[in-house]
Amino acid sequence: MTLQQLRYAIEIANCGSMNEAAKRLFISQPSLSNAIKELENELGITIFDRTNRGISISIDGMEFLGYARQIIEQTELIENRYHGKNRTQIHFSVSTQHYAFVVDAFVKLMKQSDVNEYSFHLRETQTYPIIEDVRSLRSDIGILYINERNFKVMNKLFSDGNLKFTPLFNTSPHVLIRSRHPLANKETVKMEELLGFPYITFEQGVNNSLHFSEEMLSIRSNEKSIKVSDRATLSNLLLGTDGYTIGTGILVSELNGHQLISVPVETNETVTIGWIAHKDRQPSEITAQYIELLNDMISQNLLDLNQFLL
Q1: What pTM was estimated for this model as a whole?
Q2: Exposure class string for 57-88: b at 16+ Cβ within 10 A, else e
Q3: What's residue 126's pLDDT?
């Protein structure tokens, strides 16, 4: 077993594709495949399950990759200490539902990083892939919400994936609308008042289920609906129409501007926004730093939101 083989396996896990990993490693796909097969034969385990649809990380592979990452990180520390290097490339990845505050904390993390080299990944994606990204160690953490509607399903997935959910904050559902929307001057909005306006939601692909919906309320009998796949498109539609979506109530003015506002929905439902991580993987220093930034900015935004509502 060599350090190169460990780096190969980690890159494949990060890419989720043998072909893509080979391109990034600047080697041929057959050479990469042979190197992994030799490693699997030596260890007597299957690291990657191969199917017609591609590859996935096996249960043994998840455990192995956790150790492999620790070895590579320790190797880089030794190289920096004894090869005279003062800097090393830092790796960090987060998969998340479409939250502006997650992006804002990510921007602050970039500004605070005092290293010459880093490889950061921010994946705004669908709910089920978030869980898969963290389970397969493609991402260090995932950010999503749970509530009474999806609690049982989500916790089953967390348990099956050996993941731990840590709460960030609790909130009630808010409608996100433009400042010139007919409902913009209301202190609260009733569910029935939303029915005449276009409801804009994020599509969930093949895992299209209420349990995986990013929107925290189920709006029934809505005759006008629009599905989008990214936050920029949703923002443009909200600014250009009388459409609405459901969110946390937290807005980041640096990213959203002041043309979008949030209004509480009259409901008894509450949701918990939090982050998931693999139970067998100790959070790195950069991960802990990002979580601290999240907590700091959420605390400030919730304070501002509560002051606005009082």
Answers
A1: 0.72
A2: bbeebbebbeebbeebeeeeeeeeeeeeeeee
A3: 92
